[in-house]
């Protein structure tokens, strides 16, 4: 939610609205501060030039915010020529 532009307070109120428990915006800030460096490292990782197989899977989930809408969760799996299967999305 944070990379999509929601503030820590917005995320806190959304979690309370969806899941029914409260999380302080300070806790959201601590979590994003821990996760963002790892996410940035993942986004800049090197990719192979060629993969033997690439699989794409998609699952739709409901977003329960102001408006009810379906959001896709897309997963990419790739198998390089001489390596094991690995996920190209964020695990």
UniProtKB/TrEMBL annotation:
InterPro entries per the UniProt record, alphabetical: Transposase_mutator
Alphabetized UniProt keyword annotations: DNA recombination, DNA-binding, Transposable element, Transposition
Record keyword Metal-binding present: no
One matching Pfam family: Transposase_mut
Family affiliation: Belongs to the transposase mutator family.
Function: Required for the transposition of the insertion element.
Protein's recorded name: Mutator family transposase
Source species of the chain: Siminovitchia terrae
